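Retro notes (design track)

What went well: tokenization of the new backbones is finally stable.
What didn't: we kept losing track of which sequence belonged to which structure.
Fix going forward: every design gets posted as structure first, then sequence, in one message. First example under the new rule, 221 residues:
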């Protein structure tokens, strides 16, 4: 069960990243090829996703950030993030769907900037052709996949394994294997050693005050 939960987590996180990346890529591509009559001439304009559905960039980046949060989220936060992913996917599909349903209206800002034609009615009358490219449908599909991923997170999130940290206790042993035996030099501040250890420490300190070198063993021989 733990391995299954880990596999579901990995697949759904990767799915969120892939769908968000696809939406971001689609946003940067041409969605509509528009032909507009201006006087006696016809102007052809390529309309990118950044114009037709400008919100997709922010929504896609939010989806990528959400995937990162999923890797460390607890069970309750996973539910919140799953619901948020559904909302993000719905918004991406809605933005792309509106552009697909009315490409002339989605291209209005670019048409006005290029030709000076303003007003929804004037733009609709001036557009003679508006051909959608596959990138518009890719953006819509990315939103659908994001919604599906969000539903998957809501359903399976409680079964995902949590993040764990393993700690190994440090145990001191003496040379004979007795646990907890520390040398006098390793005694922590505030703890007491044996009487002999305290006496040796006092003798060593007195020798230092007299200027004796504790590393000089010549005097012991």
């Amino acid at each position: 069960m733990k391995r299954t939960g880990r596999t579901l987590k990995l697949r759904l996180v990767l799915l969120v990243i892939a769908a968000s990346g696809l939406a971001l890529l689609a946003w940067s591509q041409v969605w509509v090829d528009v032909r507009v009559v201006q006087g006696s001439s016809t102007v052809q304009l390529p309309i990118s996703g950044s114009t037709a559905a400008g919100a997709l960039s922010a929504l896609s980046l939010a989806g990528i950030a959400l995937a990162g949060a999923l890797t460390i989220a607890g069970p309750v936060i996973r539910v919140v993030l799953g619901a948020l992913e559904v909302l993000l996917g719905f918004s991406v599909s809605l933005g792309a769907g509106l552009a697909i349903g009315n490409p002339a209206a989605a291209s209005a800002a670019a048409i006005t900037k290029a030709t000076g034609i303003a007003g929804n009615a004037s733009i609709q009358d001036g557009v003679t052709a508006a051909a959608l490219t596959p990138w518009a449908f890719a953006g819509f599909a990315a939103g659908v996949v994001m919604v599906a991923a969000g539903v998957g997170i809501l359903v399976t999130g409680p079964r995902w394994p949590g993040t764990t940290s393993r700690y190994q206790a440090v145990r001191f042993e003496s040379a004979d294997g007795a646990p907890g035996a520390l040398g006098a030099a390793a005694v922590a501040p505030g703890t007491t050693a044996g009487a002999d250890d305290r006496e040796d420490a006092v003798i060593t300190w007195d020798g230092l005050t007299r200027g004796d070198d504790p590393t000089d063993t010549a005097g012991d021989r």
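Added context from the reviewer: The chain has one domain: 2-159.
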